[in-house]
Amino acid sequence: MQTTASPSLPAAQQTASVRAPGPARPYGRYLYLAINIAILVFLLAPIAIVVVFALNPTPFIQFPPVGVSLRWFEKFFASRDFMHALGFSLEVAVLTTLSATALGASAALALARGNLPGARLIVATMLSPLMLPAILTGLALFQTYVLLDVGRPTWGLVAGHTLVTLPYVVRTTLAVLHNFDLRLEEAAQNLGASPVRTFFEVTLPLIKPGVLAGAIFAFIVSFDQFPVSLFLVSPGNETLPVTLFNYLKFDLDGTIGAASVVSIVLAFVVVIGLDRTVGLRSYVKL
Amino acid sequence: MNSTAATRPNGLALFILPSALLFALFFFLPIGLMAVMSVLTGNPVVMPKVAFTTRHYVRMIGDPFYLEVIWTTVRIGLVTTLVALAIGYPLAHWMARIKSRTGHALLLMAVLAPMLTGIVVRTFAWMTLLSDKGVVNETLMSLGLISQPLKLMYTETGIVVGLVHIYVPFMVLTLTGVIGRIDERLEQAAENLGASPLRAFLEVTLPLSLPGILAGSLLVFALAISAYVTPILLGGFQIMTLPILIYQQISANFNVGFAAALGIVLLVISLLLVVAYNRALGLVSGQRELQ
Q1: Mean of the pLDDT values across residues A219-229?
Q2: Domain count, chain A
């Protein structure tokens, strides 16, 4: 699919041509499209504006922009604080992705195939960090670490991130497992494969797209995670969103714009990666 | 899962254990400790004599300030939910009904792109849009529509606008799934029988999508009342919500017990919402089974 085109306009044109309004009542149709395009502008304009401010050279937020420069990107990449935060965020995101994927995928296998009693309740519990306020997860973990006097270690932060990203892996893997043709495994075993060999040569390759989608989700959610990090980071060792937040409290210049563009680009790379590997439709089911 | 007969757990069931351990140690234990801390006079590890107390809860109920904070949080959540529904529904309807595959994919990208942009980044975007010298005010003033900048930031309206932008994708994705399951021929039948498209929508599609409206609204409400970044930055530290108060109790007042009590209040509200959300989604799947 096309990923380079601006999302709103071509979509609108295509709909207009595919679902041509009947001659009898075109106005309702036009109103419908106009409202929807306005909503798309509302959704996407703020992201576009961030890019504009990242490139605008004035030291404060000014509109309309006066020119194009890369000085804020230079400042961002030259800043030790931001670079340290970026590195730490990537480290936490990688560790979180590894643990959430391993735990989430095996939990999904157990839930779909283990004949566990109360599987529905367990699934609901494992998905609950999605709906329970992440700020509570942060607060509760913070209090626990204080009570146990363990300080604010990186593993404590990774555990918190794993908790809030695990639901994504569980959900995407379960989705694949539910659409799975059990006869494929039976066929492998009828042809003489051992259960272990069947697992590695049939089951694992078939659920891989779901696990991968979950892993990519876990990475991006961890990279952008804020409320849990807010409670669990230590001064001088902060993740990028926390550093951005602290910067935003006092300064509103283009550096934030440049930092934002870097994370937006990362998000887009991930979305395109998702679409290339598994297709977007298959897992975006809330 | 339904196809396999109910038998005893097999070897694969053991794969649940690592996640179960994670949830036990890093989810249930901390939340349990939070509940305990909310009824203690102090930290039992460093203080030798701690006693049971209800003072944190009494303080919350007795002081109108805290009730006001809870009400502000709920009010912002409600308005955000209503606005998100109003602008999420048309987009979800379009996404569910669009015929072109490319069109659908582009719409999906448009909804997902903001979702995958961090909350801090999106709040920054709204600060540049809504501030006194921001994009909205500068544009309106250069067009001569206003002479004084509108006060958009540091108001509840500003917070709601930011929160709607952040959480409307959740509404759209929930609604799209539900609207997509409604048979389009029902609408066509209504139109063939003489109903206008608007009436067909109001009397056929809208009632059938009610469970989705409920599920999406509960989700957005749950997310909006627990937001921290957007209310604090767009509210300019002037509007107090429950999450802001909780963090303040930890970072400025070091009052862990009171923070825990506030956390338990937020937890109870959220748990009620989760139960209601699951009920609403149950209605959706129940409907599918009937078809």
Answers
A1: 90
A2: 2
**CATH 1.10.3720.10 fits domain B78-242+264-290:** yes
Residue A69 lies in a domain: no
| Alpha carbon separation from A207 to A14, A43, A180, A221 (Å, rounded) | 34, 33, 8, 21
Cα–Cα distance measured from residue B66 to residue B34, given in angstroms and rounded to the nearest whole number: 19
CB pairs below 8 Å between A and B: how many?
Answer: 315
Instruction: Judge if A19 and A108 occupy the same domain.
Output: no
Chain-centre distance of CA B289, in angstroms? 28
Does the CB of B28 have a partner CB in chain A at under 8 Å?
no
Buried b (16+ CB within 10 A) or exposed e, A54-87: bbbeeeebbbeeeeeeeebbeebeebeebeebbe
> Both A159 and A90 in a single domain?
yes
| CA distance to partner chain A, nearest, from residue B58 (Å) | 21
What is the value of pTM for the model shown? Answer: 0.84
Whether the bond between A64 and the residue before it is cis, its omega within 30 degrees of 0, is yes
Distance CA B237, CA B239 (A): 6
Cβ distance B163 to B232 under 8 Å?
Answer: no
Residue A65 contacts B where some CB pair is shorter than 8 Å: no
- Same-domain check for residues A141 and A229: yes
Q: What is the ipTM of this complex?
A: 0.85
Alpha helices in B48-154 (DSSP H): 55-62, 64-97, 101-115, 119-130, 135-142
Contact between chains at B105 and A280 (C-beta distance less than 8 A)? yes
Other beta carbons within 10 Å of B122: 23
Task: Tell me: do A150 and A207 sit in the same domain.
Answer: yes
Q: What region does A240 belong to: left with phi over 0, alpha with psi -120 to 50, or beta?
A: alpha
Q: In B, residues 46-75, which contact A (CB 8 Å cutoff)?
A: none
Tens-place pLDDT, residues A61-118 = 677 778 888 988 999 999 999 999 999 999 999 999 999 999 999 999 999 888 888 8
Task: For A40, name the nearest residue in chain B, comparing CA atoms only.
Answer: B110
Give the tokens for residue B59.
């303080």
Contacts of B247 (CB under 8 A, 6+ apart): A135, A230, A231, B228
| pLDDT tens digits, one per residue of B61-73 | 889 999 999 999 9
Distance CA B258, CA B62 (A): 13
Q: What residues make up the domain containing A97?
A: 74-277
- What CATH number is attached to the domain comprising A174? 1.10.3720.10
Q: Say if residue A220 is in the same domain as residue A133.
A: yes
